[in-house]
Amino acid sequence: MASQEAGTCPMASADRALLATGTLTDPAIRDHPDAFYAAMRRQEPVFYDAKLGAWLVSRYEDAQTVLRDAEAYSAERGYNNQFAKGFIDEFRGILEAEGGGFFPDVIKSDPPRHTRIRKLTDAAFSAHRVKALGPGIAEIAADLVDTMAAKGEADGVADFATPMTIRVICKQLGIHDVDAETIKRWSHALIQQIGMVQTRDE
User: Distance between CA atoms of 164 and 161, rounded to whole angstroms?
Assistant: First the structure.
């Protein structure tokens, strides 16, 4: 068996191999990104994902720098110029003609617009308000646990975390006549809109 080349670390070699071919557009990596993120942190904390067409930061300090400087790291410009792949005007026209209007995504907006909209939701999700919802949240959790127990097996994310989050938010917003699966489908469609893995037709 060939020996490890002197002066090289097996983990570093594995990291570099993963980063050379890995991408967040790969469903396998996107679903289980821990090893990919760990390799980034160890080898390339600021990493360019060529297939995604975006720079990624993987360390806390770098993430804080990006999040605190909306001028240098504009989420809105990044979406309009890059994530929308040049189709933002066409997309806007389709929504205005067939979807009832174009509403720029809050997630991909910059201050002061983002700050103004964020303040509108702060009161609904304040610590005091969430505490008051405790009994209702406990009831939802118990219902989900009972459902999982009846099945005899469970996926922690699909069977508990996702429906729990959706049902609590719907309760907060006073939405009672739409099932969790429908909300999940809508949320997925929204995320696809702001992602880089969708095609032009999508």
Answer: 5
Confidence band for 83, pLDDT divided at 50, 70 and 90: low
Rounded to 10 deg, the angle between the 134-151 and 162-173 helix axes is 150
| Interval 20-57: pLDDT, tens | 999 988 989 988 999 999 999 999 999 999 887 788 99
Calculate the CA 150 to chain-centre distance.
30
Q: How far apart, in whole angstroms, are the C-alpha atoms of residue 152 and residue 71?
A: 51
Residue 44 lies in a domain: yes
**Is the residue at 79 inside a domain?**
no
Cα-based torsion angle of the residue sequence 149, 151, 154, 159 in order, rounded to the nearest 10 degrees: -90
Q: pTM for the complete prediction?
A: 0.57
Domain boundary among 68, 84, 114: 68
Residue 49 forms part of a structural domain = yes
> What domain range is 169 assigned to?
126-194
